[in-house]
Amino acid sequence: MGLLEGKKGIVFGIANDRSYAWYITKCLVEQGAECAFTHLPDEKGKMERRCRMAVKELGVEDPWLTPCDVSKDEDLDAVFAKLKSDFGKIDFIVHSVAYADRQFLQIGNFHKTSREAWTQALDISAYSLLAMGQRAVDVMPDGGAIISMTYYGGEKVIPGYNIMGVAKAALEHTTRYLAADLGEKNIRVNTISGGPLRTLAASAVGGISEMFEHQERKASMKRNITGDEVGNTAVYLLSDLSSGVTGETIHVDAGFSIVGL
Ligand code: NAD
User: Residue 96 C-alpha to ligand 1 middle, in angstroms?
Assistant: First the structure.
């Protein structure tokens, strides 16, 4: 029997079959979880098609899939209302969403970040976790688990990561405050600090190729990580194996962040 047999939840952030959310879903489904999905709305329906194709590869033929721009309260309200009416209650939420204007993700450009770009990055990449936590209370009456994705650039300066690093710092601390508020309701909130992975979002970050090389040289295990390694950590955090763990940032980075020099 799988570790997530009988558990249902929702995954935000599958853009294609290279997304961290896709690897997380792969591992959750392998452990028996039932997953619902959202996609970023776009006029041509490309995002919906890509998400549908990606989950089909995981054997999910007719997915529960609905549009959601996480910067819009009305979209989030609609998603959670639909979850409640279709499932009654859920057990987990996967937040694997981030955005920042790529012109400010170039090395040396952090000081040029506009107020608008700052606000948008923090809103989509960090506030959205709080917005989901708020709404989770209603669909997790017996408790549940929420995870998000962060990166070491939220703890230390990584050239090119820039405003996204500030957003990740906010995400990691939002994780702690949310965990403290929701703990009595038996809702756990944790975040995974994953190593670099070649995804759409990663391609927007200036100097990303150097990050992969640097990871291989500096990480304790002298290598990059795989999507499955993050996916399996998600299984742990969303299953009862981690029933006493909340408010944590768990590094899945082959020991990159423990090395000083
Ligand atoms: P990705 O491009 O595959 O996923 C990012 C997702 O965010 C996409 O599905 C996109 O549609 C969604 N998104 C952006 N703006 C949105 C909005 N307004 N509303 C709803 N969805 C929106 O890239 P990824 O690398 O898989 O990113 C997933 C998460 O992993 C992000 O939080 C990212 O910061 C984090 N992360 C990535 C890396 C890496 O190297 N790829 C490392 C550590 C953490």
Answer: 5
Question: What residues of the chain score a pLDDT lower than 70?
Answer: none
Cα separation, 161 vs 100, in Å, equals 10
- Residue with the smallest CA separation from ligand 1 atom 34 is 98
Enter the tokens of residue 54: 């990606």
Architecture of domain 8-254: 3-Layer(aba) Sandwich (3.40)
DSSP-derived secondary structure for 172-195: HHHHHHHHHHHGGGTEEEEEEEEP
Measured from CB, residues less than 6 Å from any atom of ligand 1 are 13-15, 19-21, 40, 68-71, 96-99, 124, 149-151, 194, 196-197, 199-202
Burial (CB count within 10 angstroms: exposed 0-12, middle 13-18, buried 19+), residue 184: exposed
H helices present in the chain, as ranges: 20-30, 46-56, 73-87, 115-122, 128-139, 162-182, 200-203, 208-218, 227-238
Is-catalytic flag, 99?
Answer: no
- So what's the pLDDT on residue 147? 99
Which pLDDT score, from 0 to 100, does residue 183 have? 98
Predicted local distance difference test score (pLDDT) of residue 207: 86
Q: What is the pTM of this model?
A: 0.98
Report which ligand 1 atom has the smallest distance to the Cα of 148.
32
Q: What is the spatial distance between Cα 19 and Cα 13, in angstroms, rounded to a whole number?
A: 7
**Residue 39: both structure tokens together:** 């996609």
> Residue 13 CA: which ligand 1 atom is closest?
9
Please pick, among 23, 99, 152, 161, the residue that the annotation labels catalytic. 161
pLDDT at 80: 98
Give the pLDDT of residue 194. Answer: 98
161 is catalytic: yes
For residue range 199-215, what is the model confidence (pLDDT) as tens digits?
999 999 988 889 999 99
